[in-house]
Automatic annotation (TrEMBL):
Keywords tagged on the record: ATP-binding, Ligase, Nucleotide-binding, Protein biosynthesis
Lineage, opening ranks: Bacteria, Bacillati, Bacillota, Bacilli, Bacillales
Catalyzed reactions per annotation: L-glutamyl-tRNA(Gln) + L-glutamine + ATP + H2O = L-glutaminyl-tRNA(Gln) + L-glutamate + ADP + phosphate + H(+)
Annotated organism of origin: Virgibacillus oceani
Subunit structure of this chain's protein: Heterotrimer of A, B and C subunits.
GO biological process, one term: translation
This protein's name: Glutamyl-tRNA(Gln) amidotransferase subunit A
Length: 448
């Protein structure tokens, strides 16, 4: 009830939620109130939470922020992460707004309404998990799930002053996550602090036979890593992450954070990730290529609202898709289809795959010597609604510090690390080795 009261108070302005599940949530909460099961057997007992709207929830509308799926009211199954949250006795409050099919960095691509930044509603909350970050920042839920393909958990977490983690690729099952770019997508938690984040990841992690890319590795107790001890930790700071384009106040907050780590007995050194400069181009080719294939299923027959204006079969597919998808989604489908088409495949898709390997190798090399990589999450704090919407390339460039992590597949967190002059938060990004979320959490927790 407290969650719904808060939503009633603030969601008119923040617009984080697309769908609420009030009746069911309240009846689940009542059941838990009356139940005799021990709370400690259920790590998220009674905790109100929100789910990004590209994660499938049984019998609860799942739109992916798209008009095309506005009537997808009755999905037949739960995503694995949702099943796991239910088993842990978390209470789902509702579904959270996002850029259409997770394509965007500001939530302005939601085809319903843009979510606003709770710190200042003239600013964007970031994207594509903008609703997930804003709902936590505004106190509407205690945690949320987002998805991160090129920064979509970390960037909105940074813009909204909350904690967001993208796990190692394969750590969390993608079964029931509507695919954007299957080789990059991961689901992760957004919370107010590091401990809550570790707790939620503990619940949603693990191998799943329904997702062949989920890794069969042990899930350690992340919360036990939160010792506060970072003595002897070796931190790498890539010079490319503090280069031109990163605003002076963001740089300063990162340098201040490094001083905190020094005072705690950690060491840091400047390093280079030389292929970072190709990351944005590589990502937008690969992600769009995968998206063009993944989005083929939305045809107005199996999924999506069917056009009423078509007179034959082919027109029905075409018209449903042109009426259903928004502009950014169409732009990506066209770019991806082009990069994959014969004659262009070698020059674009294949080349991008090769550069992806070089980017991954950059990380591997650094991690031979260092425990974590630290830099800013974004080059600047949140921008104004409308400021970049006309210019997709500027919008894409904003992802420069988060994208390399997805291309490599390593885990990374964003934790709040300061405020700009106009009072907007920015984030410190801590990147770890494959499946070493423990060190990422330990490092983040010591700074908090
Ligand atoms: N902003 C990036 C994009 O538009 C990242 C999106 C994401 O991580 N889902 O593709």
């Amino acid at each position: 009830n407290t969650s719904y009261q808060r939503i009633e108070e603030v969601d008119d302005q923040v617009q984080a939620f697309l769908t609420l599940d009030k009746e069911k949530a309240i009846s689940t909460a009542k059941e838990l109130d009356g139940s005799t099961v021990a709370e400690n057997e259920h790590p998220l007992f009674g905790i109100p939470s929100g789910i990004k709207d590209n994660i499938v929830t049984k019998a609860l509308r799942t739109t992916c922020g798209s008009q095309f799926l506005r009537n997808f009211d009755d999905p037949l199954y739960n995503a694995t992460v949702v099943e796991k949250l239910n088993d842990a006795k978390a209470v789902t409050i509702g579904k959270l707004n996002m850029d259409e099919f997770a394509m965007g960095s500001s939530n302005e691509n939601s085809s319903f309404t843009p979510t606003r930044n709770p710190w200042n509603t003239e600013y964007v909350p970031g994207g594509s998990s903008g609703g997930s970050a804003a709902a936590v920042a505004a106190g509407e839920v205690l945690f949320s799930l987002g998805s991160d393909t090129g920064g979509s958990i970390r960037q909105p977490a940074a813009f909204c002053g909350v904690v967001g983690l993208k796990p190692t690729y394969g750590r969390v099952s993608r079964f029931g996550l509507v695919a954007f770019a299957s080789s990059l997508d991961q689901i992760g938690p957004i919370t107010r602090n590091v401990e809550d984040n570790a707790r939620v990841l503990e619940v949603i992690s693990g191998h799943d036979k329904m997702d062949s890319t989920s890794a069969n590795v042990d899930v350690p107790a992340y919360t036990e890593a939160l010792t506060g001890d970072v003595k002897g930790l070796k931190i790498a700071v890539p010079k490319e992450y503090l280069a031109e384009g990163v605003s002076p106040d963001v740089k300063k907050s990162v340098m201040d954070a490094l001083k905190v780590y020094e005072s705690l007995g950690a060491e840091w050194e400047e390093v280079s990730l030389p292929h970072s400069k190709y990351a944005v181009a590589t990502y937008y080719l690969l992600a769009s290529s995968e998206a063009s294939a993944n989005l083929a299923r939305f045809d107005g027959v199996r999924y999506g609202v069917r056009s009423e204006n078509a007179e034959n079969m082919l027109d029905m597919f075409k018209m449903s898709r042109s009426e259903g998808f928004g502009e950014e989604v169409k732009r990506r489908i066209m770019l991806g289809t082009y990069a994959l088409s014969s004659g262009y495949y070698d020059a674009f898709y294949k080349k991008a795959q090769k550069v992806r390997t070089l980017i991954k190798n950059d990380f591997d090399k650094i991690f031979e010597e260092y425990d974590v990589i630290i830099g800013p999450t974004t080059p600047t704090p949140a921008f104004k609604i409308g400021e970049k919407v006309e210019d997709p390339l500027t919008m894409y460039a904003n992802d420069i510090l988060t994208i390399p992590v997805n291309l490599a597949g390593v885990p990374a967190i964003s934790v709040p690390c300061g405020l700009s002059e106009n009072g907007l938060p920015f984030g410190l990004q801590i990147i770890g080795k494959y499946f070493d979320e423990r060190t990422v959490y330990r490092t983040a927790h010591a700074f908090e």
